[in-house]
């Protein structure tokens, strides 16, 4: 590795890479940091490797369960957080010289999208536009689309599915993530590299309310009925029941935290519908108001090199 050079660091490292590095430390996995920052995993890995090359020292210690900061990495994290705190202070002071954008913005989305993806984006947006009153409505996918079509929400962020009626909305692709199978340690499927829905259907399949419709459709394709013995409201509860040996579950990968990996087994779900396509919806035929347009631009913003990853 090269020797640390302050001028080289300033010229070569962008703020997004510094933010990505902090996310990797907080998530304890580069892959989860990539999901959090809306960037391809391969691009995230390369950015952090380039940062280590510039620093001239290992910043992350890599192990079988994830990553932790090296002593030098811990120092870097402390200073990066200070940089972003100063940027927030600067933004607030500059904003005080002008009223800026003001008004109300109603956003509808599902918990499985709010928690891993847009909550941080909404926080950044609120700091950027402090005079905007944000109204966040947690809904299921069909209700999100209906709320936007009826004008009850300025924009919605939802996971696409075949049964959704999108006639009243315009949609813009936002991002993708994957559904995975979560099984107890030592379960007969825990040694598999991948499983199908047919493999999981005979098990006690613990269903989160928001996913029941999609799982019923998948079961019907197999000529089976889906009658889950347990239905819960959150991914955390479902995974806890799996850990207790009460069954298996299907969850978005981004909702299964790193610390659970040692207590349950995560297996790839080999189904075409296991890739979740997440879209932004706005009312069809209506002009998007400037506040909603500003948020949508922020959500769609991508690092320049992501497309090349």
TrEMBL record:
GO terms for molecular function: DNA binding; DNA-binding transcription factor activity. This is LysR family transcriptional regulator. Pfam families: HTH_1, LysR_substrate. Transmembrane segments: none annotated. Belongs to the LysR transcriptional regulatory family. Keywords: DNA-binding, Transcription, Transcription regulation. Residues 18-70 form the HTH lysR-type domain. One of its GO terms (cellular component) is cytosol.
